[in-house]
Design goal:
By secondary structure, the chain is mostly helical. It has four helices and two strands; from the N terminus they run βαβααα. A two-stranded parallel sheet has the order 1-2. The longest helix is centred in the last third of the chain and has 24 residues, at 92-115. The N and C termini lie far apart (39 Å).
Length: 125
């Protein structure tokens, strides 16, 4: 893995430092926050500023837009249309299994439609 694209929930100093040490280029959106204090945190400052420089570039904007378009839209579809918002199961492990199966079914349906040249599910045509 050489690049990481994420939304603002995954932006932190520690994450950017760890990715920089592993030579992973981050394209993580920054949350709106006040002035940051960089005293004694030169490594963190350099990593965060490098990430900021990348996301403001043309490639970074395109990657973040694609993440929002493909990943977030797919997950929103699963949670809204697939009724995953109101999921009632006991235990995190069971919820994780359900989400995994639901996402796998969504991806399988998408791959089958693309391979057969269909743009929409059969019920929507």
């Amino acid at each position: 893995m050489s690049e990481l694209v994420g939304d603002k929930r995954y932006h932190s100093k520690l994450t950017t430092i760890d990715c920089a040490k592993l030579k992973i280029r981050t394209y993580t959106a920054e949350p709106q926050r006040g002035e940051q204090q960089w005293k004694g945190e030169r490594e963190a400052r350099d990593a965060v500023q490098a990430n900021r420089r990348r996301i403001n570039g043309e490639r970074g904007k395109r990657l973040l837009q694609n993440r929002g378009e493909f990943i977030e839209r797919s997950l929103a579809h699963c949670y809204e249309t697939g009724a995953m918002r109101r999921l009632h199961l006991r235990g995190r492990e069971n919820v994780s299994k359900r989400v995994l199966i639901h996402a796998a079914g969504f991806n399988l349906g998408l791959m089958l439609r693309v391979s057969h040249g269909l743009k929409q599910p059969p019920g929507l045509t």
